[in-house]
Amino acid sequence: MEPIEVLSSLNFWAVLVAASSAFIVGWLWYGPLFGKQWIKLNGFSKEDLMEGGMSMPLIMIINYIATALAAVAIAMFIGAEATAAFGIFAGLMIAIFWIGTSRLNDVLYERKPWGLFFINTGYNVAIYAIMGAVLGAWH
After folding, report:
1. What is the mean pLDDT of residues 17-28?
2. What sections of the protein cross the membrane (predicted)?
3. Measured by CB atoms within 10 angstroms of the end CB, which terminus of the chain is less buried, N or C?
């Protein structure tokens, strides 16, 4: 199949919903579930997160665009004939074996805490499985 055919077969509503679902999970994950621990393990204070750098709305817009692009890639990867089960499987494989192994560098070379690795990788496992399920189920 040619790349243009793959792109034309994408359900862009499913991509937007998949990206939105990741955003909601991210709010929960880095908020009430693991937010305090994530801040502590990074050595941040709440004030650090409010000061300097980009504004929160800009950060969220950039993050949503990046997440939507990831959802497009997953949709292209799993194809139009995928099921929710295959989407979950593909999402788990992407998160564990591509993202998770890549994030090991944070611990091994940057000497970040293992707890931070598990929080961040766990988030990726959750969102990629959910995005895969949405994209696999909704053609």
Report:
1. 96
2. 12-35, 56-78, 84-102, 114-138
3. N
Contact of 132 with 88, CB cutoff 8 Å: yes
Q: Is 98 helix (H, G, I), strand (E, B) or coil?
A: helix
- CB–CB of 117/103 below 8 Å? yes
Query: Taking every pair of C-alpha atoms in the chain, what is the biggest distance, in angstroms?
Result: 51
**What is the rounded CA–CA span in Å between residue 130 and residue 49?**
28
Q: Say yes or no to pLDDT of 12 above 80.
A: yes
Give the whole-angstrom CA distance, residue 2 versus residue 48. Answer: 47
State which amino acid sits at residue 98.
W
Segment 11-39 shows an average pLDDT of 96
Q: Where are the domains of the chain?
A: 3-137
User: pTM to 2 decimals?
Assistant: 0.91
Closest CA to 22 of 83, 66, 86: 66
Query: Would you state the structure tokens that stand for residue 116, as one six-digit string?
Result: 């931070």
- The DSSP annotation for 16-41 comes to HHHHHHHHHHHHHIIIIITHHHHHHH
Q: Check residue 73 and report its DSSP letter.
A: H
Contact assessment for residue 76 and residue 118, using Cβ atoms and an 8 Å cutoff: no
